[in-house]
Amino acid sequence: MADIGRILRTVRHLRYPQMVYQVAYRMHKPVYQQLNAPEGKRGDFYSDWTAKPTSLLKSGRFVFLNLEGPADWNFVDNGMLWAYNMNYMDWLHQKDISDEEQVQWIEKFINELPNCKIALDPYPIALRCINWVKVLVRNKSISLSQRQEIEDNLWSQVKLLERKLEYHLLGNHLLEDAYALFIPSVYFLDDKMMMFSRRLLCRELQEQILNDGCHYEQSPMYQCVLLDRLLDCYNIALANAGFVDNDTMGVLKTCSESMLSWLQTIIYRDGSIPMMNDSAKGIAPTPQELFDYGHRLGLKWTSAQLSDSGYRKMQAKRLEAVVDIGNITATYQPGHSHADTFNYELRVDEKPFIVDTGITTYNKNDRRQYERSTTAHNTVTVDGRDSSEVWGGFRVGRRAKVKVQADETGFAKAVHDGFGKDCLHERSFRLEDNSFVVEDHIGGDHKAVNYIHFESGLEPSVKGKVVDCGNVEIRIEGADKIEIKDNFVASEYNRLRQSKFLAVSFKDSMKYSINVLR
Question: Is residue 254 domain-shared with residue 320, that is, in the same domain?
Fold first, then answer.
């Protein structure tokens, strides 16, 4: 019965199309059909795009997510996300690949496609189609016969994607699908596909980009991933402005500048992103690469006023904090959300000090469950419970609902009901010149634990109610027990680093201040 209740608490948030298409795609699976590409002129890009990380090694093997594997489209021993990365073919645009190699790998894929089991899933199709269009536009070594073969196969994949759009998932998957229809529609200058793709793309952008410019799944990493391909859309639209209508151009431009504004506001002084929700290094282009891309396209933006995303940035001379006082905004697609209400990260002298423990995997295992749990974040559990009911790798049942009580420069206060209506958790954050102060209050008679995760390499020690961290100390009030425990943190997939964390037990209320001493 507990499992049934959890499922009901999860599916009640789904939208009607998700449920319909979950059933429809199980009953009927569209199949690949070899088609001829439209004849005629081809579209171009206005500017260069961002280069992709080196994944194809000189040996002919591949590295994704810090794991090495063979050149096999069906290889799943490193997990499905690794296999998907292989089939995206982003690596066609790594810096050290030649024009000839690009063509060889595409022809290899075409020849082996009949035996590919993963390649024709909609998400790999979407990303691969964008990558192939870029090759067709820029590669000078493609013969006429090769171009025809690649274009026919590309068009066939795009038309299959059109029949497999991820309405059963929605969220970033459907947005990526829209990108992948729009870019080929401009490349082939196909009016019918353009009309459909522009409607889908504009609708999803207006749905998914929040008022402050954050993508509604609230992952800084996915912000960069989705912004990169949005800039690709604006890039090809700029070069074909006579084909793309003014309204679509306006939506692409406005959303690009809005996302750039949010990204500029949320990053740390060293240019890196917070590791909130599903975020890791080495997956998306860096913020600086995206800013450079935006400038090449003539875009202009300023800092954003953070609001709907729930994130707030607090800065002093030696301290930087990003705090989370938001709800899960992608209510029907919370797959990249964590049970991290009132989580935060803190940097001292531009170096990580208090950190999110990060993510290492998308595999549905104990590590994934831990990395999404409240215990893995700098916030509070009550009676051993998570603030939101994360489960199944990408699902969320019961959700914390947040009410913001104060929202000022250097100060934020909010309350959430994730532990029940009779057990509200109220938290405030205050940033001063050399201190960061966190106060918590738990309603009712409950056992609470406050978790504080240190960056790898720090060696805190407890002296009474004070935790010594070298030139930083943490003064704690209201604690029943303070423990230092061993743990692991991550900033990349499949790479764990030893670390320490504080587990501070309390009832009712507690307060701690993180103070820079010298």
Answer: no
Residue pLDDT, tens place only, 199-242: 999 999 999 999 999 999 999 999 999 999 999 999 999 999 99
Task: Give the pLDDT score at 444.
Answer: 82
Q: Which of 272, 350, 355, 274 is nearest to 318 (CA)?
A: 350
Residue 175 belongs to a domain: yes
Provide the pLDDT confidence category of residue 324 given band limits of 50, 70 and 90. Answer: very high
If asked whether residues 127 and 206 sit together in one domain, one would say: yes
Task: Give the relative orientation of helices 220-239 and 171-187 as an angle to the nearest 10 degrees.
Answer: 20
Q: What is the CATH number of the domain that holds 160?
A: 1.50.10.100
User: E strand or H helix at 240, and its extent?
Assistant: none
Contact 181, 196 (CB under 8 A): yes
The per-residue pLDDT for 1 is 56
CATH code at position 343? 2.70.98.70
Verify that 283 and 337 share a domain, yes or no.
Answer: no
Q: For the residues 49-61, what does the mean pLDDT come to?
A: 97
Whether 407 and 285 map to the same domain: the answer is no
Which residue bears the tokens 């104990």?
Answer: 366
CA–CA distance, 310 with 393 (Å, rounded to integer)? 23
Residue where one domain finishes, among candidates 240, 261, 296: 296
Buried b (16+ CB within 10 A) or exposed e, 415-448: bbbbbeeebbbbbbbbbeebbbbbbbbbbeebeb
pLDDT at 518: 78
Does residue 19 fall inside a structural domain?
Answer: no
- Per-residue pLDDT tens digits for 37-48: 999 999 999 999
State the Cα–Cα distance between residues 429 and 507, nearest whole angstrom.
19
CB atoms within 10 A of CB 76: 15
Mean per-residue pLDDT, 29-43: 95
Locate 340 and state its tokens.
Answer: 């991290």
Q: What ranges make up the beta strands (E) of 385-480?
A: 390-391, 395-396, 402-408, 411-416, 425-431, 435-442, 448-453, 461-463, 466-469, 472-477
> Cα–Cα distances in Å, from 418 out to 227, 387, 426, 499?
31, 5, 11, 28
52 shares its domain with 196: yes
Residue 346, in any domain of the structure: yes
Expressed as residue numbers, the domain containing 47 is 31-296
- Reduce the DSSP state of residue 58 to 3 states and report it: coil
Does one domain contain both 278 and 315? no
Query: With 80 as the cut, is the pLDDT of residue 5 above it?
Result: yes
| Residue 2 pLDDT level (bands cut at 50, 70, 90) | low
**Whether residue 318 sits in one domain with residue 282:** no
User: How many domains are contained in the chain?
Assistant: 2
336 and 278 share one domain: no
The helix, strand and coil proportions of the chain, stated in percent and rounded to the nearest 5, come to 35, 25, 40
Task: Give the residue from 310, 306, 259, 318 showing the smallest Cα distance to 287.
Answer: 259
In a domain, 336, yes or no: yes
